[in-house]
Specification:
The complex is a heterodimer of chains A (405) and B (432). Chain A is of the alpha+beta class and 405 residues long. Chain A contains 14 helices and twelve strands. Chain A has two domains: 171 residues, no CATH class; 193 residues, no CATH class. In chain B, strand 3 and strand 4 form a beta hairpin. The chains are: A alpha+beta (405), B alpha+beta (432). Chains A and B meet through helix 2, helix 11 and helix 13 of A and helix 2 and helix 10 of B.
Chain lengths: 405, 432
């Protein structure tokens, strides 16, 4: 193609060409980073919880006035909840994966506060919690009924929790390369808890420990009173979730009337926890689309002007034997050159922008494969945008050259 | 002359109406997005106690054991109950208050009204004068009430209206978890933004409805909330002497000298505690004022800052787009400009004429951008975030919007007009 004449034309429109190159570069850089951030957020929102999400519903209960023996009420609650049609299992727990507030403690393989190695989320739950959550046991077993201790007794150190179930993440950290079942951990009190089971995964309620701590969670066999645990989890038939939730609230209030703070399916728990990420994803998508549209329209506007301005030259070229195809190619090549310059500059900018984001917002490094995505996007966009004006240019008849201005 | 320029500008803008709309929309969306995010940032980073925030300090001591100690570490973020009560008794500051958040069940004792929970604060007498809390009736309680765990309470206006249908309720009682508390005062709507004095509840939350002396809250066993960190297991983590940090402590010190003296006092206190075997670590104290504390705790969510940068990047692209289009447009009129120059128009008047045209695009874009910003803020208010309802354009931000629009339009107009007015008339005339 005729690069030389194109370049010399562009040199005559240096400022305008430089501006469009800069616009393409900035769009390329922002869109590259935005797509990367969107992927990051989507990954976050899709983090596995390790539980049977489709089948779980949650009721968070609060007691307004002191109603008497909370442990006894809790037992009646659980019995009433299990009797609700459609409920396969029910348990009370102190926290919910991705549910927000959390109980955590440092654990280690040796006694003493200094030997505590990793901060771990501390799930406590009544019998059937493992079954209710639907977590996947990959080694060992569930708790036996004798292992359950009463929460208040544990708190006042008159009872000891004998056993614990840990996630694969904890097992691999504390006992790398070994079978963790049967080994001790020190989490609460001076006596160890023995690992009786290892589960594949159980997400923490929040991410205050960041990515590194995300895999550390454990379950203790503790019967909690409802005013401490407050979260009733039910495993139900997915088709009947709404119906079961309504019936479950009635069941709880038939035991003792209380305030139900939250009544939601697990899908809603997840949605609520990641709403900030979701709105960020929408914003980034909106801005990216906006930028691409603005840039495309900018290219259309500039190309249209240039076509109008060069009408006579195009006519002369046509009269001298250039085909329509040649004229079309001319504008397409011109756009390709501008886009390429913009993309090259944009790659550098993307990288710089990512470095800056890394330093300020704990964003990971931009993987190299995102750069070609941005480049391809801008090339295609440029060619599409220039097509209209270029086709118009191609229809200019040679006769125009013979007319006066 | 300006009238003539305006006329020329309107003709020119009308000639390429599609392009004009594109340029205006680009500026409008850029300004709208930037102002929406900047306003949210402005609201979230505002000073909750203007005029006083520099005199209010948050106290930190390090009562933790030696295990896990690393030199230069930040001390624990909250105080133990023992330390907080000791500092309160010492009265070394102009005002001082200990506090924690709680959730109290209120029994309305009124037909048709079910018991409900109210966000509560368990604190001490100086809380009200120190934070300049406005009262509609009565007053706070006294230091004696703190010492005696008196059965008193201060309630907020919405709670008073809910319980009694009136705010004139000083001397009446409110039943909290079975205890009758005498109301000493009713505070007006009071919502410092951010909720600076306790960053363990919602940072931009609505504030509390019920205020009870800390001592009283322990005696009638109200449920506390917020964060508690224990470094040893405790039978009763809320008891005096428990190795748990869960109390916030604020002091008012109205001069740098007093702040320095108070810091000295905290170091002395830590040393005494260490000598008495209660502290293990070397004295490690912090005394941050309100804005330092908010900054330290990163109260403005990083996502909000990120959004602002994204919007400003968007605005920049929109501006470059407009500059490019205006430039091309002006240069296309080189012939016309050449003729006008040849007929005696000065560079200056050509520049002014083109700037008027660019200015119209910028101004219309800016006004439309203001509309879009209002729409954007409305959209933010529909979000479930706890700061959502605060996202409103105030006077300074309204001014900033106009400043941004005018700057944007000037930026977009000056370069193209400057380039175009330097067209050489001779060449233009010759080539036609």
């Amino acid at each position: 193609m005729h690069f030389i004449p194109i370049l010399s034309t562009l040199r005559r429109h240096r400022t305008a060409a430089a501006l469009i190159v800069l616009e393409i570069a900035l769009t390329c850089a922002i869109v590259c980073n935005a797509i990367f951030l969107i992927r990051e957020r989507i990954e976050r929102m899709n983090q596995p919880s390790g539980i049977a999400e489709d089948e779980i519903v949650r009721l968070q209960v609060a007691g307004v006035t002191k109603l008497g023996d909370a442990a006894e009420i809790t037992a009646r609650d659980l019995a009433a909840l299990k009797a609700v049609p459609g409920v396969k299992a029910a348990a009370l727990t102190n926290m919910v994966p991705f549910g927000g507030s959390s109980w955590n403690t440092d654990i280690g393989t040796k006694p003493g506060a200094e030997a505590r190695e990793i901060n771990t989320a501390m799930y406590m739950g009544s019998q059937d919690l493992v079954e209710t959550l639907g977590v996947k046991l990959i080694a060992g077993r569930d708790f036996t009924p004798e292992e359950y201790a009463d929460f208040n007794a544990v708190q006042s150190q008159t009872a000891h929790m004998p056993s614990v179930i840990v996630t694969r993440g904890v097992a691999e950290h504390l006992y790398p390369g070994q079978n963790a079942v049967g080994k001790p951990i020190y989490a609460h009190g001076d006596e160890p808890q023995i690992i009786v089971g290892v589960i594949e995964h159980l997400a923490r309620p929040n991410d205050f420990q960041g990515r590194r701590g995300a895999r550390y969670a454990m379950l203790f066999p503790v019967t909690l009173p409802y005013n401490v645990g407050s979260n009733y989890l039910l495993r139900v038939d997915p088709a009947r979730r709404a119906e079961v939730l309504a019936a479950a609230e009635r069941a709880i209030n038939s035991v003792e009337p209380r305030i139900v703070l939250k009544r939601q399916t697990y899908a809603d728990v997840r949605k609520e926890n990641f709403r900030q990420d979701r709105s960020m994803t929408y914003l980034l998508t909106g801005v990216s689309i906006g930028l691409l549209i603005i840039t495309a329209l900018g290219i259309v506007g500039l190309a249209s002007f240039w076509v109008q301005q060069r009408t006579r030259q195009i006519g002369i070229r046509r009269a001298l034997g250039a085909t329509r195809q040649d004229i079309l190619r001319y504008f397409q090549t011109e756009n390709f050159i501008l886009a390429t310059l913009g993309i090259v500059l944009g790659m550098g900018l993307s990288y710089g922008m990512n470095l800056w984001l890394m330093s300020k917002y704990q964003v990971p490094r931009l993987p190299i494969e995102f750069l070609p995505i941005g480049a391809l996007l801008l090339w295609v966009l440029g060619q599409l945008a220039v097509l209209g004006p270029a086709l118009r240019a191609a229809t200019i008849p040679p006769a125009i050259a013979t007319r006066t201005v | 002359m300006l009238g003539y320029y305006l006329d020329l500008a309107f003709r020119s803008l009308k000639r390429n109406i599609g392009l004009t709309i594109l340029m205006i929309l680009a500026i409008a969306f850029g300004v709208g997005a930037s102002m929406t995010t900047l306003t949210v940032l402005h609201v979230l980073s505002s000073d909750p106690m203007p005029g006083k925030s520099q005199d209010l300090y948050y106290v930190q001591l390090d009562a933790r054991p030696m295990s896990g100690y690393r030199a230069g570490d930040e001390p624990a973020d909250q105080l133990t109950r023992s330390d907080a009560e000791a500092l309160l008794r010492a009265r070394k500051a102009d005002h001082q208050a200990m506090m924690t958040s709680g959730n109290a069940a209120i029994d309305p004792q009124r037909a048709g009204l079910q018991p409900f929970f109210a966000d509560s604060r368990f604190t001490s007498a100086d809380f009200f004068p120190m934070f300049r809390v406005p009262f509609v009736a009565g007053n706070g309680w006294s230091a004696d009430d703190d010492a005696n765990a008196a059965r008193v309470a201060v309630i907020a206006r919405p709670l008073a209206e809910k319980l009694f249908g009136s705010t004139n309720v000083v001397g009446r009682t409110v039943r909290v978890e079975g205890a009758d508390l005498r109301i000493t005062g009713v505070i007006d709507n009071w919502r410092p933004v951010p909720h600076f004095y306790d960053l363990y509840t919602d940072n931009f939350g609505k504030g509390e409805q019920l205020f009870v002396p800390f001592s009283t809250s322990r005696e009638i066993k109200l449920d506390r909330s917020g964060e508690m960190d224990c470094w040893k297991e405790a039978k009763d983590p809320e008891a005096l002497g428990a190795p748990c940090e869960w109390i916030q402590f604020w002091v008012e010190l109205d001069s740098a000298a007093k702040a320095k003296a108070y810091r000295e006092f905290l170091v002395q206190y830590s040393l005494e505690q260490k000598r008495a075997g209660k502290f293990e670590r070397q004295p490690n104290v912090r005394l941050r004022n309100v804005m330092q504390r908010l900054d330290f705790r990163h109260v403005v969510p990083p996502d909000v800052r990120l959004q602002t940068w994204i919007a400003l990047g968007f605005l920049l692209v929109c501006l470059i787009n407009t500059v490019g289009l205006l430039l091309t447009k002006f240069l296309r009129r080189s012939a016309e400009i050449g003729v006008r120059r040849a007929l005696g128009a000065s560079k200056r008047s050509i520049f002014m004429q083109l700037l008027v045209e660019a200015g119209i695009v910028g101004l219309v874009g800016g006004v439309a951008g203001l509309g879009l910003a209002l729409l954007g803020l409305w959209a933010v208010r529909q979000q479930p975030a706890d700061f959502a309802e605060l996202a409103r354009l105030d006077l300074p931000m309204l001014g900033a919007t106009f400043a941004l629009s005018i700057t944007a339009s000037l930026l977009a107009g000056v370069l193209p007009a400057w380039r175009a007015c330097h067209v050489t008339p001779a060449i233009q005339l010759k080539s036609h």
